[in-house]
Amino acid sequence: MKKTFSLSLVIILGLVYSLSLIGCSGAEQAFDINSDKLKIVTTIFPYYDMSRSICDNRAELKVLLSAGNEPHSYDPSPADIVAIENCDVFIYNGGESDEWVENILSSLQNSNIKIVRMMDYVNLRNEQETDHSEGDEIDEHIWTSPINMVNMSRVVKDIFLQIDENNSDFYSDNQLKYENSLKNLDSKFRSIVEKSAKNTIVFGDRFPFLYFVNEYDLDYECAFPGCSSETEPSIATVKRLIDYVRDENINSVLYLEFSNGKVAKLIAEDSKAKIAQFYSCHNITREQFINGETYISLMEHNAEILEEALG
Questions:
Q1: Cβ atoms of 14 and 79 closer than 8 Å
Q2: Under a CB-based contact definition with an 8 Å cutoff, are residues 135 and 127 in contact?
């Protein structure tokens, strides 16, 4: 979804906001200006969680898409612009959803910021590669593959080492632990798929899992391709999925976080299938954030759901 706004107005508001923080007691700043810690800004949760795992308490972190917000309706605030201007490392995904980033980056006064565009470090997939989409857009949801996350965590670690050599061993050790957790997760998914009687997952929802299913050689059926902006599937699509679930004895119809799951319920109600939430990890709820949920813990949940869905 393309973002359009007056960049000059946002920048002016951002400067006003940053000045207002100085005069307002109790107002929160994005970063402690007196701290020598590495200052990192990420656009979305997966990269925030990755950076947090590698840096732990040796860095200050801010994620722009705050917990509880729907990922595809984000617009940068003046405070977000200020945070980017004041950080050491800015990590974003890239792609159409991040078109606003390019405009912001071209206006930055701080030329010392290390900018990491994650889509530059993985093999990208086109939605047209599948039978489920008529479009030719690149799928942006690269983090849904744990192996992509392994590769991206190495890139991020190397950036941290360039800036903060004093903590190089700390970052390297933490990245290795994180990588091992991702590899364990990857092994679990592969084992589930190898042992399963079925090889197709059914989503009564949007489908941001192209990298996930390609990683584990899974087939899929879905109500909407990619992250379609459509809200209701066609009658023909619903009928096709209902018939498929019933004829193939599908155990579970899946739906996304931040979704009401009503399409999945409609597809499942004419069969013995259950409905289950499957996390894209694009963002988490406020409660999940407070409870310390991580990319790894959400994907562990997905492994349990996948095992049941594939029978």
A1: yes
A2: yes
Does residue 242 contact residue 307 with C-beta atoms inside 8 Å? no
Q: Each residue of 153-210: pLDDT tens digit? A: 999 999 999 999 999 999 999 999 999 999 999 999 999 999 999 999 999 999 999 9
List 63's β-bridge partners, or say none.
42
Alpha carbon of 174 to those of 5, 142, 292: distances in Å? 39, 22, 18
pLDDT tens by residue, 197-213: 999 999 999 999 999 99
Calpha distance 135→116 (Å, rounded): 27
Instruction: Tokens for 57, please give them.
Output: 């308490």
Answer whether 226's CB lies under 8 Å from 283's CB.
no
SS3 241: helix
Beta strands in the chain (DSSP E): 38-42, 59-63, 89-92, 114-117, 200-203, 219-222, 252-255, 274-277
C-alpha separations of 311 from 201, 250, 305 in Å: 10, 8, 10
Considering only CA atoms, which of 35, 18, 140, 19 is closest in space to residue 77? 18
CA 101 to chain centre: 16
C-alpha 121/C-alpha 99 separation (Å) is: 18
Question: Of how many residues is the chain composed?
Answer: 311
Which is nearest to 134 in space by CA: 238, 68, 225? Answer: 225
